[in-house]
Amino acid sequence: MPPPSRIVYSPKSQPRTPFPRKARYTLLAVLLAFLISGALVYLARLDRLRVDQVELHGLVQLRDAAVASAVREAVGGTTWGFVPRDHFFLVSGEAIEHRLRGEFPQIRKIDVNKRFPDRLIATIEERMLWGVYCVGELPRVAARPCSYLDENGTAYEELAYFEGWLLPVIYGAAAPEIGAAAVSRATIEFFEQARQALADVGAYPLGLVLSTSTPTDGALRLAEGWQLLVVMDRPIPSWFDALETLLAAEIGARRQELEYIDLRFGNKVFYKYR
Length: 274
Hints:
Elements: H1 21-44, E1 53-57, H2 64-74, E2 78-79, E3 83-84, H3 93-103, E4 107-115, E5 119-126, E6 129-135, E7 146-150, E8 155-159, E9 169-172, H4 185-198, E10 205-210, E11 217-222, E12 227-231, H5 237-251, E13 258-265, E14 268-273
Parallel strand pairs: 1-5, 6-9, 9-10, 12-13
Antiparallel strand pairs: 2-3, 4-5, 6-7, 7-8, 10-11, 11-12, 13-14
Helix pairs in contact: 2-3
């Protein structure tokens, strides 16, 4: 009997199924997203990148502490529930400027800059107080709407009531919008020039009443208690010589009795006693 065959057939190996390429890329993308997210969260919460130094330059009347407090409030709180709004890369100069202008109307100009990693520098230019603008023609009216004026005629802070003569007062017909021009720069310049000229005849203007019917007409209220009616767009020398002559030649010692002198009609000068 022949011996059995010893030929052994090795089993055929099954090919390994490769990990799908698409799944591999998906897994890598998920891992990368987790890494990036973790890094961003770490950077977002990093105290070293939180703006905690505020430098203020140019303040004159405003208090440093009040302005710095407003800046910190503008960047307070969090964004997306966990990112501090005072993070260096999230601090917005425009948002700070908007907040400061709303809270301090005395500010004319703001320049906000950041210095890495935690410093904010704000250079502020304040408005220069010139006088007061009030609605109406009478010098004293209860609850009169008034506002401070800067040297350009811009109304920048409301006053519930104003009384006194320490500042020039301009009386107009309508209440101005805060931050907008209440009167023109030309009106401010006219008042300043008139004040300088009238000093030569011993007259001191306290206020100016703007005409409601003729925009170029105005009444200068003098400390002596009488008014000077003029046309504001005419050169002051064109009526000052006539005023000087009238006061010296006709009015004399009766200046305190005057109600007004009207210089609006060229060489024709009118005046009235009380």
